[in-house]
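[job 4471] stage=fold_predict status=RUNNING
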Amino acid sequence: MRPKKLAERFRISASTIRNYEAKGLIPPTERSPNGYRIYTDLHAAYLSCIQAMAQPFGMEVTAEVLRCLHQNKPQYAMWIIREKEIALYEEKEKLERLIEDIRVYSIESKAWCADKLFTIKEASELTQIPKSAIRYWDQAGYVRADRDPANHYRRYSGSHLLKIRLIQMLQSTVYSEETVNFRQSIAAVEHTDLQALVNVAENIRGYLDKILESQMRGILNLYELIQFTKA
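[job 4471] inference complete, writing structure tokens
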């Protein structure tokens, strides 16, 4: 295939394909007598794999996996993907616990020490999230801390901590338009509006379900590519 034909097939530009080749994501091409690049079914298989894996795993991971294939290390490539699968499962379990904690907090007035305020250091220790991240989210408007009237220090309630944990859920996901929208939704929700927090969390759960499905498609394409390269 000529570059233009391959680019049309995958709805990308010929320059993108050349860029993939320059970065080692697809095999080097042969040249025709007049100097044109000639692409084969193997290049098409690599491009299919890139498109299937980039959305659920991110381009950085996808590039690392494909370079492993170029180095004839398919097992390394598969273990990289398995690590990301496990990470997604762990994120989903954390989200389920968070949804349950929000519901418990909304029912039991004393859950999570509802009548107590925490310093930023205590909030960091309770959520296992760095103070720098919490401070940044406060400044960015994702979670607005209360202020101590005496010294103006930040103070966080139990519902603040729940919102902080919800923001953290998006930190390890691949950047996308949907994750941007989720961040905006979180910023718009008051930390005291627990039902709204649950709604956002459940929407994120649906998004993780979609990522899981996309990961399965990416893994299928990777497996087919590995078999192709073996053949």
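[job 4471] summary: The two ends are 20 Å apart (CA to CA).
[job 4471] exit 0
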